[in-house]
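Troubleshooting log. The previous structure file for this entry was overwritten by mistake, so regenerating from the original sequence record. Sequence copied from the archived sheet and checked twice against the printout by T.R.
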Amino acid sequence: FNLLRGDWPGSDKDREKAFETLEALRERIDVGLQWPCESPMSFTIPFASASPVIDGKINEAAWHRALTINGSYPISSTNKTPDGSVWKMMWNNEYLFVGVFFPDTDIIAEKPPYKGDSMEIFIMPSKRMKIYWEIVIGCDGELFDGFHCNNRYGGFASNFAIEMKGLKFKSFRQKNGFSVEVAVPFAELPNYMLGN
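Regenerated output below.
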């Protein structure tokens, strides 16, 4: 917008490219402008009385008291799809635990893992700081993680050289799908040093 309004310097070619980019995003922008919810859904994630063994299986007793969501929400939709997926979350004083099961009869592993069947989570501990982790774990246990920072103009900068220290994860293939367990260390989350 700034480039098209003339607030930023640029050539006619730069402005043409900016216009093409906005046209390509028009449908997604319209969905956002017409979003039916004024605020995002809120969930309470329970404290884990026992830590799960990170072996890729989410059927052990430690997961029974976790926040559990059955199904998923497709991108740009508020309607949950009963696709058979199961998402679980809980925490203790050291880790945020995430476990998921995806039904899948045609499992495809790729490198990087986000190109194949995988679990992807984004964790932004503070909206004020606008810094977040992206964690992608493939069906074969391949890891891709990135450290990102949003800016006030809607863009972001990424640093893929930084790896999350102490991250524990494991994938497990089954006949009817695959599951992933992750233990995200709170000490690696931005804003942790402030006691949040």
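Helices lie at 2-5, 12-33. Archived copy saved in two places this time.
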